[in-house]
Amino acid sequence: MLWEYEQLAAEISRQLEDYPAAHRHLQQARTLITPDHPEAQVSVHIVAGLLAENENKPDQARQQYEKALSLTRDTHARARLYSHLGKLASYEKNYPLALTLLKKGIRSMVPSYDEKRDINPDSKSIKSVYRKEYLFTLIKQKASMELAMYRQKPGPPLLVRALSSFRTADQMVELMRRSHEATQSKLFWRQDTHHLYEEAIEASFLQQNVALAFYYLEKSRAVLLNDRLNELTANQKLSPALAEQERTFRTRQEQLLEQLQQYAPGTREYAQRFSQWFSQHEAQQEFIESLRQTHPAYFHYRYDNQVPSVATIQQKLEGNDQAFVSYFLGDEAIYAIGITSSKTILRKLPLSGFRRNANRFLKLCSTPELTKTEVQALQRTGYQLYRRLLMPLHVPSARMIVSLDGAFLPFEAFSHSPTLPNAYLVHQQAFSYTYSARFLLRDRQTSGWQRPFLGMAPEQFSASLKQPELPGSAQFLSTISDRIPFAQVKTHQKATKAAFLREAPNYRILQLFTHADAHLSEHTEPVLYFADSALKLSDLNVNRPFRTQLLVLSACQTGLGVEQKGEGIQSLARGFAALGIPSTVTTLWNVQDQATYTIVEQFYQQLSEGLPQDVALQKAKLNWMHTQDHQLPYYWAALIQTGATTPIQNASVIPVYAGISGGALLIFLGVLMYRKRGLTKAPHP
């Protein structure tokens, strides 16, 4: 088996771009392969073809792939080779040839597929394929080729065919992602499907189909978060016995599919195995359908991954003077959709220079002291982003819900004028943010009694954490909590990580005054500091459901983390959202303590008056700005509200709990008086 070592070494060298070493290892592999081992030769030819591609030698790559194709009878190898050959043809813009090769690859995996017809494999055929990722790659490439042919020579039939292929590829993503349980595996698929959804949105734009573009934009957004929410919610709604039955069905299906691939289509053995698989598949579908009837809540969370329609979004916006804007940041362009209660708008926006402007804007916003020249640059950049992202959508509502792709930008700090000082949008509109429309509209029914408020402020931290003190945070927390009956506070050494994990799920509002680190690295994760230790994003994966309605993280960079392409920022705020907390107030950069304390205190004051959360935060910021000579975004724009914007139940819970406490007191006094009267009538001997 030494040839396998040499082949693997060649592949690693190729990926490290050490091409001479890759050639040496390939030559060694060839000398070690015996003539009676053709599949080994196929593997080496594939690596040699990839190496030739890297060296920009398409003719040599094609020769290697064609040699491998002539030797192999393995279904998956043939599919992979047709995929590579189709890719080479597309590089030369020979799209008809590329399409022909890709269809051959599809037929190698789905024998019933007709290469001469412009349709895709049906659902039943796709489900019977074992290694669906190979078929998915082929169908994804087929959709790209059909779109490329339309760009080359526009014609409605080509666009319809491309959209049909994108739809099939999207359905395959749904099938495959359920079999990928590990987070890293899911992240791989999010990265791999991002370009698929970009092209699907482009095709929808070319057809001017806003509803379809919105569907694909939503399918690209926050999938890991929705999976986690569905998993947590579903697991609370199914008995252990039914859960085990469900796992058994899934495992048996995978086993039968694996066995099916060992036989050639058309043989008696293949027909027998296919019959077994199909019977098992039908039984599994009957079981799932029975869950729709007997456990509708579980079925909804586990299997019903419907994207909300534009009409559903419009219904939510109606009567609130709200608009919903969503962005897809692609490799070629930005796609934007604006939705109000009465209209929808789809725009393709230029990508050139956007990332540079966005990064510059964030840097200027997060700087506490700016020169006059830098203030002017902040105004210009904020105005440019306003013109690029908001003006083309024409949705000037008083309240804006923003769904961003990738890093958050504080839209309230954009400028509506390039020259007027302090022309920030916060003066005109209240902004809130969401990971996706599905997250925003998710049904969150709280169960059981909730305590009103838990606040934590360590103020000092363990020496091992190397965090500076936060003087005054405990006092500010006390000021807030004094207004809320039955509020609980934990300050100084009582504000521990264990206390938070133990008690936080039971409270309606959580307020944390502490430090946090975004750790913008793929090898670390965001952390939140308590008096004794740090809480990591992964520590939040607990089975205990949170009944919290609002979490306020008054710490630095709680909204930041590692950006996963096609998925968004994996931050502490997102981790809490995955626990089912519908609304969070978080920060985008290192905040100024006193300004943050004052804005948060004002925020609670506005909430107590029954205002929606986005409006309450807007007014809190404006009230702070009216008392200050400096208006730089550094001091006020870091705090953003993400998720549901509905007012906190019964105006900051004060009247509710005051009523409960008053009612309980009356009952207690009544019982006491009754007992006293009884004692008067019948004294103890």
Structure description:
By secondary structure, this protein is of the alpha/beta class. It folds into 5 domains: about 1-220, Tetratricopeptide repeat domain (Serine Threonine Protein Phosphatase 5, Tetratricopeptide repeat); about 230-300; about 325-440, no CATH class; about 445-590, 3-Layer(aba) Sandwich (Rossmann fold), CATH 3.40.50; about 655-685. Helix content is about 55%, strand content about 10%. The chain is built from 27 helices and 16 strands. The chain has a 6-stranded mixed beta sheet with strand order 7-6-8-12-15-16, with helices on both faces. Strands 3-2-1-4-5 form a 5-stranded mixed beta sheet. It has a 3-stranded antiparallel beta sheet with strand order 9-10-11, with no helix packed on it. A hairpin with a 4-residue loop joins strand 1 (about 320-330) and strand 2. Helix 8 runs antiparallel to helix 9. The chain is globular. The protein starts with a helix and ends with a helix.
